[in-house]
Give the backbone structure.
Amino acid sequence: MTQRLTLRRPDDWHLHLRDGAMLRAVLPETARHFARAIIMPNLVPPVVTGADATAYRARIMAALPKGMTFSPLMTLYLTESTDPHDVAAAHAAGLVTAVKLYPAGATTNSASGVRDLARVRPVLETMAEIGLPLCIHGEVTHAEVDIFDREKVFLDTVLEPLRRDIPNLKVTLEHVTTRDGIDYVREASGDIGATITTHHLMINRNHILVGGIKPHYYCLPVAKRATHQEALRKAATSGNPRFFLGTDSAPHTDDNKESACGCAGCFTATNTMACLAHVFEEEGALDKLEGFTSLFGPARYGLAPNDATITLVKEEAPVTYPARIETGDGPVTVFDPGHPLFWRVLDQ
Ligand code: NCD
Ligand code: ZN
Protein backbone atom coordinates (compact mmCIF):
# COMPACT_ATOMS: atom_id res chain seq x y z
CA MET A 1 0.00 0.00 0.00
CA THR A 2 1.28 3.45 -0.89
CA GLN A 3 1.96 5.58 2.11
CA ARG A 4 0.90 9.22 1.89
CA LEU A 5 1.70 12.10 4.11
CA THR A 6 0.12 15.54 3.80
CA LEU A 7 1.86 18.44 5.52
CA ARG A 8 1.50 22.16 5.69
CA ARG A 9 3.72 23.56 2.97
CA PRO A 10 7.26 23.71 4.40
CA ASP A 11 9.60 26.69 4.79
CA ASP A 12 13.38 26.70 4.71
CA TRP A 13 14.92 28.75 7.51
CA HIS A 14 18.45 28.85 6.01
CA LEU A 15 18.99 28.93 2.25
CA HIS A 16 21.64 30.15 -0.20
CA LEU A 17 20.14 31.33 -3.49
CA ARG A 18 23.21 33.18 -4.86
CA ASP A 19 22.65 35.60 -7.74
CA GLY A 20 22.49 35.86 -11.53
CA ALA A 21 22.48 32.62 -13.53
CA MET A 22 22.90 30.46 -10.42
CA LEU A 23 19.92 32.14 -8.74
CA ARG A 24 17.76 31.51 -11.79
CA ALA A 25 18.68 27.83 -11.80
CA VAL A 26 18.38 27.03 -8.08
CA LEU A 27 15.36 29.14 -7.10
CA PRO A 28 12.77 26.85 -8.75
CA GLU A 29 14.30 23.85 -6.96
CA THR A 30 13.31 25.42 -3.64
CA ALA A 31 10.10 27.16 -4.75
CA ARG A 32 8.69 23.89 -6.05
CA HIS A 33 8.12 22.67 -2.48
CA PHE A 34 8.82 25.55 -0.11
CA ALA A 35 6.63 28.62 0.43
CA ARG A 36 9.24 30.79 2.15
CA ALA A 37 12.91 30.76 2.98
CA ILE A 38 15.36 32.80 4.97
CA ILE A 39 17.80 34.00 2.35
CA MET A 40 21.45 34.08 3.33
CA PRO A 41 23.18 37.38 2.59
CA ASN A 42 26.71 36.07 1.82
CA LEU A 43 26.89 37.31 -1.74
CA VAL A 44 29.99 39.02 -3.08
CA PRO A 45 29.71 41.82 -2.02
CA PRO A 46 27.40 40.87 0.88
CA VAL A 47 23.86 42.13 1.49
CA VAL A 48 24.63 44.60 4.26
CA THR A 49 22.12 47.44 4.14
CA GLY A 50 18.37 47.70 3.82
CA ALA A 51 18.92 49.04 0.30
CA ASP A 52 21.03 45.97 -0.58
CA ALA A 53 18.27 43.69 0.70
CA THR A 54 15.59 45.55 -1.28
CA ALA A 55 17.62 45.18 -4.47
CA TYR A 56 18.42 41.49 -3.82
CA ARG A 57 14.79 40.73 -3.04
CA ALA A 58 13.76 42.29 -6.35
CA ARG A 59 16.34 40.16 -8.22
CA ILE A 60 15.00 37.02 -6.53
CA MET A 61 11.40 37.85 -7.43
CA ALA A 62 12.45 38.61 -11.01
CA ALA A 63 14.11 35.18 -11.21
CA LEU A 64 11.00 33.31 -10.03
CA PRO A 65 9.42 31.43 -12.93
CA LYS A 66 5.87 32.45 -13.83
CA GLY A 67 3.27 30.37 -12.04
CA MET A 68 5.43 29.72 -8.95
CA THR A 69 4.86 31.46 -5.65
CA PHE A 70 7.62 32.02 -3.14
CA SER A 71 8.40 34.60 -0.46
CA PRO A 72 12.04 35.32 0.26
CA LEU A 73 12.60 36.36 3.87
CA MET A 74 15.57 38.67 3.68
CA THR A 75 18.51 38.93 6.06
CA LEU A 76 21.28 41.48 6.52
CA TYR A 77 24.93 40.50 6.79
CA LEU A 78 26.29 41.93 10.02
CA THR A 79 29.57 43.81 9.62
CA GLU A 80 31.55 45.90 12.06
CA SER A 81 30.30 49.02 10.28
CA THR A 82 26.59 48.06 10.19
CA ASP A 83 24.43 51.02 11.18
CA PRO A 84 21.86 50.16 13.90
CA HIS A 85 19.45 52.76 12.47
CA ASP A 86 19.55 51.16 9.04
CA VAL A 87 18.81 47.76 10.60
CA ALA A 88 15.93 49.17 12.66
CA ALA A 89 14.48 50.92 9.60
CA ALA A 90 14.70 47.72 7.49
CA HIS A 91 12.93 45.83 10.27
CA ALA A 92 10.24 48.50 10.69
CA ALA A 93 9.60 48.43 6.93
CA GLY A 94 9.01 44.67 7.14
CA LEU A 95 11.94 44.13 4.79
CA VAL A 96 14.15 41.88 6.92
CA THR A 97 13.39 38.84 9.05
CA ALA A 98 16.80 38.44 10.69
CA VAL A 99 20.41 39.60 10.77
CA LYS A 100 23.20 37.11 10.11
CA LEU A 101 26.39 36.91 12.13
CA TYR A 102 29.35 35.30 10.39
CA PRO A 103 32.54 35.25 12.39
CA ALA A 104 35.07 36.62 9.88
CA GLY A 105 36.60 33.78 7.86
CA ALA A 106 34.24 31.07 9.17
CA THR A 107 32.86 30.00 5.79
CA THR A 108 32.17 30.85 2.14
CA ASN A 109 32.21 34.63 1.55
CA SER A 110 32.60 35.58 5.19
CA ALA A 111 35.59 37.91 4.89
CA SER A 112 33.41 40.91 5.80
CA GLY A 113 32.15 39.17 8.94
CA VAL A 114 32.67 40.16 12.55
CA ARG A 115 36.11 40.03 14.19
CA ASP A 116 35.26 41.80 17.45
CA LEU A 117 31.74 41.41 18.86
CA ALA A 118 32.18 44.55 20.97
CA ARG A 119 32.08 46.55 17.74
CA VAL A 120 28.59 45.31 16.85
CA ARG A 121 27.15 45.63 20.33
CA PRO A 122 25.01 48.69 19.48
CA VAL A 123 23.42 46.78 16.59
CA LEU A 124 22.76 43.74 18.80
CA GLU A 125 21.23 45.92 21.51
CA THR A 126 18.96 47.55 18.97
CA MET A 127 17.94 44.12 17.66
CA ALA A 128 17.12 42.94 21.20
CA GLU A 129 14.97 46.03 21.71
CA ILE A 130 13.00 45.66 18.48
CA GLY A 131 12.79 41.85 18.61
CA LEU A 132 14.80 41.18 15.44
CA PRO A 133 16.44 37.73 15.57
CA LEU A 134 20.16 37.10 15.10
CA CYS A 135 21.05 34.04 13.01
CA ILE A 136 24.48 32.79 13.99
CA HIS A 137 27.10 30.78 12.15
CA GLY A 138 28.37 29.23 15.38
CA GLU A 139 32.02 28.47 14.79
CA VAL A 140 35.19 30.13 16.03
CA THR A 141 37.83 30.70 13.40
CA HIS A 142 41.07 30.66 15.43
CA ALA A 143 43.77 28.75 13.58
CA GLU A 144 44.68 26.81 16.71
CA VAL A 145 41.16 25.38 17.21
CA ASP A 146 40.58 22.06 15.48
CA ILE A 147 37.88 22.32 12.80
CA PHE A 148 35.86 19.55 14.50
CA ASP A 149 35.85 21.53 17.78
CA ARG A 150 34.95 24.94 16.40
CA GLU A 151 31.24 24.76 17.21
CA LYS A 152 31.75 23.60 20.79
CA VAL A 153 34.38 26.27 21.44
CA PHE A 154 32.01 28.88 19.98
CA LEU A 155 29.23 27.85 22.40
CA ASP A 156 31.51 28.21 25.40
CA THR A 157 33.53 31.27 24.46
CA VAL A 158 31.18 33.35 22.31
CA LEU A 159 27.53 32.33 22.43
CA GLU A 160 27.09 31.87 26.17
CA PRO A 161 28.86 35.16 27.07
CA LEU A 162 26.93 37.02 24.33
CA ARG A 163 23.58 35.74 25.55
CA ARG A 164 24.45 36.56 29.16
CA ASP A 165 25.42 40.05 28.05
CA ILE A 166 22.28 40.73 25.96
CA PRO A 167 19.71 38.32 27.41
CA ASN A 168 16.78 39.62 25.36
CA LEU A 169 18.45 38.96 22.03
CA LYS A 170 16.55 36.33 20.02
CA VAL A 171 19.10 33.87 18.70
CA THR A 172 19.00 31.10 16.11
CA LEU A 173 22.04 28.83 16.23
CA GLU A 174 22.25 27.82 12.61
CA HIS A 175 23.09 24.45 11.11
CA VAL A 176 23.92 22.92 14.46
CA THR A 177 26.23 19.90 14.03
CA THR A 178 27.16 18.68 17.50
CA ARG A 179 25.60 17.02 20.51
CA ASP A 180 27.01 19.96 22.47
CA GLY A 181 25.05 22.42 20.33
CA ILE A 182 21.86 20.37 20.68
CA ASP A 183 22.26 20.14 24.46
CA TYR A 184 23.00 23.85 24.71
CA VAL A 185 19.91 24.86 22.77
CA ARG A 186 17.66 22.35 24.52
CA GLU A 187 18.71 23.44 27.99
CA ALA A 188 19.33 27.18 27.56
CA SER A 189 16.97 29.64 29.16
CA GLY A 190 15.69 32.52 27.05
CA ASP A 191 14.82 32.91 23.44
CA ILE A 192 16.87 30.47 21.41
CA GLY A 193 16.30 27.99 18.61
CA ALA A 194 18.46 26.04 16.20
CA THR A 195 18.20 25.02 12.59
CA ILE A 196 19.29 21.58 11.45
CA THR A 197 20.22 20.83 7.84
CA THR A 198 19.05 17.92 5.75
CA HIS A 199 22.55 16.66 5.02
CA HIS A 200 23.74 16.70 8.63
CA LEU A 201 20.90 14.28 9.44
CA MET A 202 22.14 11.90 6.73
CA ILE A 203 25.92 12.02 6.82
CA ASN A 204 28.73 12.06 9.32
CA ARG A 205 32.43 12.60 8.77
CA ASN A 206 33.00 9.03 7.62
CA HIS A 207 30.82 9.75 4.61
CA ILE A 208 33.20 12.55 3.65
CA LEU A 209 36.45 10.69 4.15
CA VAL A 210 36.14 6.89 4.09
CA GLY A 211 36.89 5.19 0.77
CA GLY A 212 38.02 8.37 -0.95
CA ILE A 213 37.31 12.02 -0.35
CA LYS A 214 33.77 13.09 -1.30
CA PRO A 215 33.80 16.80 -2.05
CA HIS A 216 30.02 16.99 -2.41
CA TYR A 217 29.66 16.06 1.27
CA TYR A 218 31.99 18.85 2.36
CA CYS A 219 30.16 21.73 3.97
CA LEU A 220 30.61 24.06 6.88
CA PRO A 221 30.21 23.45 9.70
CA VAL A 222 31.83 20.18 8.65
CA ALA A 223 29.88 17.00 9.51
CA LYS A 224 31.09 15.52 12.80
CA ARG A 225 31.34 11.93 14.10
CA ALA A 226 28.35 9.58 14.09
CA THR A 227 27.43 10.19 17.74
CA HIS A 228 26.80 13.84 16.88
CA GLN A 229 24.75 12.89 13.83
CA GLU A 230 22.69 10.67 16.13
CA ALA A 231 22.05 13.60 18.50
CA LEU A 232 20.90 15.74 15.56
CA ARG A 233 18.52 13.02 14.38
CA LYS A 234 17.05 12.63 17.86
CA ALA A 235 16.58 16.39 18.25
CA ALA A 236 15.03 16.89 14.81
CA THR A 237 12.55 14.06 15.35
CA SER A 238 11.83 14.86 19.01
CA GLY A 239 9.03 17.35 18.42
CA ASN A 240 10.90 20.00 20.41
CA PRO A 241 9.94 23.29 18.72
CA ARG A 242 13.40 24.76 19.31
CA PHE A 243 14.71 22.55 16.48
CA PHE A 244 13.52 23.19 12.93
CA LEU A 245 14.61 22.90 9.33
CA GLY A 246 17.20 25.15 7.72
CA THR A 247 18.52 23.19 4.76
CA ASP A 248 21.63 25.33 4.20
CA SER A 249 21.29 24.25 0.58
CA ALA A 250 24.44 25.91 -0.75
CA PRO A 251 25.11 25.46 -4.47
CA HIS A 252 28.60 25.61 -5.94
CA THR A 253 29.45 24.50 -9.46
CA ASP A 254 31.08 21.09 -9.80
CA ASP A 255 34.32 22.79 -10.92
CA ASN A 256 34.42 24.64 -7.64
CA LYS A 257 33.57 21.55 -5.55
CA GLU A 258 35.77 18.99 -7.31
CA SER A 259 38.95 20.94 -6.89
CA ALA A 260 42.21 20.90 -4.97
CA CYS A 261 40.62 23.58 -2.78
CA GLY A 262 36.94 22.69 -2.96
CA CYS A 263 34.18 25.02 -1.80
CA ALA A 264 32.04 24.15 1.21
CA GLY A 265 28.34 23.54 0.67
CA CYS A 266 25.85 20.76 -0.11
CA PHE A 267 23.08 21.42 -2.63
CA THR A 268 19.98 19.75 -1.19
CA ALA A 269 17.09 21.89 -2.46
CA THR A 270 16.00 19.36 -5.10
CA ASN A 271 15.42 16.32 -2.88
CA THR A 272 15.29 17.73 0.65
CA MET A 273 11.72 16.68 1.42
CA ALA A 274 12.38 13.12 0.16
CA CYS A 275 15.52 12.94 2.30
CA LEU A 276 13.73 14.23 5.39
CA ALA A 277 10.81 11.83 5.00
CA HIS A 278 13.37 9.03 4.75
CA VAL A 279 15.13 10.10 7.95
CA PHE A 280 11.93 10.65 9.92
CA GLU A 281 10.59 7.30 8.81
CA GLU A 282 13.83 5.59 9.87
CA GLU A 283 13.45 7.24 13.27
CA GLY A 284 9.80 6.11 13.52
CA ALA A 285 8.77 9.76 13.65
CA LEU A 286 6.89 10.60 10.45
CA ASP A 287 4.29 12.26 12.68
CA LYS A 288 6.98 14.77 13.76
CA LEU A 289 7.98 15.83 10.23
CA GLU A 290 5.39 18.58 9.85
CA GLY A 291 6.48 20.32 13.04
CA PHE A 292 10.10 20.29 11.91
CA THR A 293 9.52 21.49 8.35
CA SER A 294 6.37 23.59 8.57
CA LEU A 295 5.31 24.66 12.08
CA PHE A 296 8.21 25.37 14.45
CA GLY A 297 10.06 27.77 12.13
CA PRO A 298 7.10 30.10 11.55
CA ALA A 299 6.28 30.01 15.26
CA ARG A 300 9.83 31.02 16.11
CA TYR A 301 9.77 33.93 13.65
CA GLY A 302 6.28 35.07 14.70
CA LEU A 303 4.66 34.08 11.40
CA ALA A 304 1.62 31.94 10.67
CA PRO A 305 2.25 28.52 9.15
CA ASN A 306 1.37 28.20 5.47
CA ASP A 307 -2.26 27.36 4.63
CA ALA A 308 -1.30 25.37 1.54
CA THR A 309 -0.17 21.76 1.87
CA ILE A 310 2.10 19.32 0.08
CA THR A 311 1.65 15.58 -0.14
CA LEU A 312 4.49 13.09 0.02
CA VAL A 313 4.04 9.56 -1.23
CA LYS A 314 6.23 6.55 -0.58
CA GLU A 315 6.77 4.49 -3.72
CA GLU A 316 7.51 0.78 -3.89
CA ALA A 317 10.50 1.36 -6.15
CA PRO A 318 13.27 3.90 -5.56
CA VAL A 319 12.54 7.41 -6.81
CA THR A 320 15.31 8.91 -8.88
CA TYR A 321 16.41 12.50 -8.58
CA PRO A 322 18.64 14.29 -11.06
CA ALA A 323 22.33 13.81 -10.30
CA ARG A 324 22.94 17.44 -11.13
CA ILE A 325 21.16 20.52 -12.33
CA GLU A 326 22.44 22.73 -15.11
CA THR A 327 23.07 26.38 -14.35
CA GLY A 328 24.42 29.16 -16.54
CA ASP A 329 27.58 28.97 -14.46
CA GLY A 330 28.04 25.19 -14.87
CA PRO A 331 26.53 22.00 -13.42
CA VAL A 332 25.70 21.73 -9.71
CA THR A 333 25.58 18.26 -8.14
CA VAL A 334 22.45 17.39 -6.18
CA PHE A 335 23.01 15.89 -2.74
CA ASP A 336 23.11 12.09 -2.97
CA PRO A 337 22.58 10.41 0.40
CA GLY A 338 24.29 7.29 -0.95
CA HIS A 339 21.23 5.04 -0.72
CA PRO A 340 17.89 4.91 -2.53
CA LEU A 341 15.07 7.27 -1.64
CA PHE A 342 11.46 6.13 -1.85
CA TRP A 343 9.59 9.31 -1.04
CA ARG A 344 8.56 11.99 -3.46
CA VAL A 345 6.45 15.11 -3.32
CA LEU A 346 3.31 14.87 -5.46
CA ASP A 347 3.02 17.54 -8.12
CA GLN A 348 0.47 20.09 -7.00
C1 NCD B 1 27.74 28.10 2.71
C2 NCD B 1 27.95 28.75 1.34
O1 NCD B 1 28.44 28.08 0.44
O2 NCD B 1 27.59 29.94 1.17
N1 NCD B 1 28.53 26.91 2.77
C3 NCD B 1 28.32 25.84 3.59
O3 NCD B 1 29.14 24.94 3.60
N2 NCD B 1 27.25 25.75 4.34
C4 NCD B 1 28.07 29.06 3.79
C5 NCD B 1 27.60 28.63 5.15
O4 NCD B 1 26.40 28.61 5.43
O5 NCD B 1 28.44 28.31 5.99
ZN1 ZN C 1 24.62 28.50 5.01
In short: The chain has twelve helices and 13 strands.
